Amino acid sequence: MSARISSIITLTLCSLALSTSAFAHEYTLGALKISHPYARATVPGQPSGAAYLTIENTGKNNDKLVSLSSAVAESAGIHSMSMDGNVMRMREKNDLELKPSTTISMKPGNGYHIMLTGLKKPLTAGETFPLTLNFKNAGKIEVQVDVEGSQAPASHQH
C-alpha cells in the first residue's frame, strides 16, 4: 500500500472517530448521568453482542444497576472481563455498584460491558436500539444505543 493511500485511510479513520464522538448523547436520571451508549455491529448469525456506556454517580448516595433489558435480545446482563496472563476471563454480575462521586466506563477490552444474549437480528452500523437500565434507587431509564462499525474506537472522547 502506498504512503499516500495509507495517509488517506488514516485521515478518514480519524475523521470518523471525531464525528462519532461529536454525536455522543447523554441521559440523566436523578444523580446518575449515562453517556454515549453504543454497541459494535455484529454479523448475521452471531448469537450475542456487547454494548458499552459510561455511568457517573454525581450524588452522595450509593446506587446499583440491578437489571437491563432490550427488545433486540432475549436477555441483557452485566459482565466483567479481565485478563489473567493470556487468558480472558468473563463473569456475569448480578448488579453493578455505583458509589457516590464515581464514574464507571464500560468499554471494549477490559472491565465491564453489557452482554446482549440471543440477538433477534444482527446489530447493524448506523442503527439504534432501546436499552432499559433499572437502578435500585434511581429507577428505570430507557436509552438509545448507537450501533457503530465493528471496528469502532475502543474509547470515546467526551
UniProtKB/TrEMBL annotation:
Keyword tags: Signal
Coiled-coil features, chain-numbered ranges: none
Signal sequence coordinates: 1-24
InterPro entries, alphabetized: LpqE-like (IPR007410), Lxx211020-like (IPR058248), PCuAC_sf (IPR036182)
Protein name per UniProt: Copper chaperone PCu(A)C
Species per Swiss-Prot/TrEMBL record: Glaciimonas soli
